Amino acid sequence: MLTRSARTTVAVLLACLALLLAGCGGGSKKSAEPSGATASSAAATPGWAKGRATVRASQLPPEAQQTLKLIDQGGPFPYAKDGTVFGNFEKALPQQKRGYYHEYTVTTPKSRDRGARRLVTGQSGEVYYTGDHYKTFKAVLR
Q: What is Dmax (Cα atoms) for the chain?
C-alpha cells in the first residue's frame, strides 16, 4: 500500500503527464491553408460555419466592424430596416424557420442608399457577412 505522500506524488505525475500529452496534440503543425480572410483552423471554426467561406471579425471592413459593435450593444441603428427579419429567399444560408435570421446594414462610403453590404445574424449566435447583396456570404468568426 502506498503512503499518502506517495499517492500524491503519483497523482501529480499523472496530471503532468496528461497535460504534456494534451499539449502535444499537433498544435505546432503549420496549416496548409494560406493566410487571409478565409483561412481558419478546423478547430477554431464553429460547426455552423463548416464548409463555408469565413472571415475574422477583425478583417471585416471598418464599417462592418462598427455595425457588429452596434449589434452587440443592441443599437441604436442608423437605418429603419436594421434588425428586421431576413427571409433567406436566396437560400444562401442554412434553412431555418422564418424569423431566425435578422439583417443589418453595413454602410457603404459614398453610397446614396443602404448599399449592398449586410450582416445577417442567426438566433444561435451566427453572424454572416455579404458584400454583394445576398449573392454570397462569409461566416464571421469572432
A: 82
Catalytic residue among 33, 102, 126, 133, which? 133
- What type of residue is 43? A
Task: With residue 131 as reference, give the H or E element that holds it.
Answer: none
**Would you call 102 a catalytic residue per the annotation?**
no
pLDDT one-digit tens code per residue, 48-87: 998 999 999 999 999 999 999 999 999 999 999 999 999 9
Per annotation, catalytic residue among 33, 63, 90, 103: 103
Q: Which strand ranges, in their side-by-side order, compose the sheet holding 101-105?
A: 54-56, 138-141, 127-130, 118-122, 101-105, 84-85
| pLDDT at site 3 | 57
Say what the pLDDT of residue 7 is: 52
